[in-house]
Amino acid sequence: MKVVDILRVKGNTLYTVQPDEPLGQAAQIMAEKDIGSLVVMEHGELVGMLTFREVLVCIVKNGGEIGKTLVRSAMDDCPMTCTPDTEIDEVRRMMLERHARYMPVMSQRMLMGVISFYDVAKAVVDSQNFENKMLKAYIRDWPAEEDAKDD
User: Fold this and answer.
1) Among 24, 25, 26, 36, which is most buried by a count of CB atoms within 10 Å?
2) What's the CATH number for 3-142?
3) pTM for the whole thing?
4) 3-state secondary structure of 12
């Protein structure tokens, strides 16, 4: 299974923010849309990733307030990315190594979407459930008469 399979099911809604926007405004968007991340874009290029983790770190550094902080100073400016053709097992390994919950999907220099660790886990579970159903159906349809003749 590949990342493109997750994007096909998930859809292509993307939420982005610019690096010079106030962090408070970005956090408000994340809360209103019930999303855990925003892709930071500048001049049509991916320049960072902002998740609630970065927002919380910034709030703690600022004594419990966001203040006038800009997205640029809180974002991860070197986010890990994958392509639509990346295998899900590789994405899972990458996300676990870096404790990443969100990963932008890039094709060339174009942002195709964002996948979350939840999306990856759901895809793996759905795939395993399908495989289990197929195996159970195969076992259930095992030709019993041939086994009885062999005995």
Assistant:
1) 26
2) 3.10.580.10
3) 0.79
4) coil
